[in-house]
Hints:
2 copies of one chain form a homodimer.
Chain A: H1 2-9, H2 15-26, H3 33-43, H4 49-61, E1 66-68, E2 76-78, E3 85-89, E4 95-98, H5 101-107, E5 112-113, E6 116-128, H6 130-141
Parallel strand pairs in A: 3-6
Antiparallel strand pairs in A: 1-2, 3-4, 5-6
Helix pairs in contact in A: 2-3, 3-4
The structure holds a DNA duplex.
Amino acid sequence: MAMERLRHLGWAVTPQRLSILRVVADAKDHPRAETVFERVRREHPHISLATVHRTLERLAAAGEVCKVTPLHDSARYDGNSAPHHHVVCVRCREVQDVEVAEFDHHWRGIEQIGEFKVLGVALEVRALCAACQQKTEHARSSRRIAR
Amino acid sequence: MAMERLRHLGWAVTPQRLSILRVVADAKDHPRAETVFERVRREHPHISLATVHRTLERLAAAGEVCKVTPLHDSARYDGNSAPHHHVVCVRCREVQDVEVAEFDHHWRGIEQIGEFKVLGVALEVRALCAACQQKTEHARSSRRIAR
DNA sequence: TCTCAAATGATAATAATTCGCAAAGAGATG
DNA sequence: CATCTCTTTGCGAATTATTATCATTTGAGA
């Protein structure tokens, strides 16, 4: 699978790339580059962090993986390239996939916006996860001004 | 205007903040922190870049300005806090506003997704601007394998 | 005007990512 | 399989964006 994807992209098939692709595909946690690095390292103790960054970046540019950028901090990658979107907690930065069927349906067929040629749409829902909602309640009740 | 916004947030009204707010509100180019800094500097030669970062960040957290994160590079800020979205060229990183009325209509009223409490939605359309479309054509025709 | 928490400026520190380059490896060809 | 060429890798240094620290200043209410 990973091999075919690389072939299809016209890229050289290297063990590092195979491993990175597999790790990202298996990950369910939207890992960041460093995390992918740690996992790939178990198979390839000599792989370099730079290689992981380079590869993820190229894969994202090619649309093979999805790059989520929760406001702040580092980029997160998602091996799921099927149409789906993300909710991210603005407080703890947890990311979770969401499907918004109606939304995707609406976009299907839109190929042009003004002078821009549409490649894809990334929907990021800014939200508060359950845990952080509670924490925020507490903080709020003990301060004068909210927000 | 800027002053009322600060008052409304319950923040101290400082000349630096007034200036930053005005610059972001007037900007039509989704400037990054450093650019805002350069502009504010014309009025306040002694302002610190840290202040600009701090202020933009707090404004974004308060929902007063919109933070766009075009894949890669630095955050871009948009003074337009009315509901709207962004198209970003994946090649040159140009950002442009888009309105997607039907989309906003669809989201109105959605306050919860699973355990997440929705605060807002950011839609980023990955695209190629006209100029980059051409450049990409050329690159493509002179290489063996595209992408 | 006085007081004090909040905001600022300067600079150091950190974190994420990218760059430069030599060495190793992939894939095409004979 | 031997060879040639172009791509990819690993390493470490460099860069870039952002945040933290802290002494000093300043806004705003009493």
